[in-house]
Amino acid sequence: MSYIFFALLAAFSFGMGTLSSKVASKHALKSWHQLWVYFIIFYSVLPPIFIALTQPFSLPSLGLLEISLNSLIFVVALAIFFKALFTVDASVATPLFQLQAAVIAILAYLFLGEKFSSMTYFWLGVIVLGAVIVSVDEKLHITSFLRPAVLLM
User: Fold this and answer.
1) What's residue 152's pLDDT?
2) Is the confidence at residue 150, as pLDDT, over 70?
3) Measured between alpha carbons, how far is 96 from 80 in angstroms, rounded to an integer?
């Protein structure tokens, strides 16, 4: 199957996950900590157990430190995202969280020395502008962006 299908399926899945997180944060859970713990248990602990029981499994021989660092950073980023979901509407938090593509490109330029074409910089600007425009709430208040959890994200 085409990678486009899988990319769209992943985007839909992440969207449904964010929506369910927001519903849980509004109606079922009292703090973002609970949401984060549930997420870590169901998304980080259960899938590897399922894979280990159904597939041959072994730890990688190289890159274990990098994989561990990546996992730690990802878990911290999710905690910040869930804190933002409890602070602002999902319609504000999610587009800003999706700025990660632009941030990755900037960090790749700064730390890995990757060079981009002027067209890539243009599209990065479009991503940032689009995320800000989509995230503006119905009353066009810029204060939604100035909350600590959103700024950390």
Assistant:
1) 55
2) no
3) 12
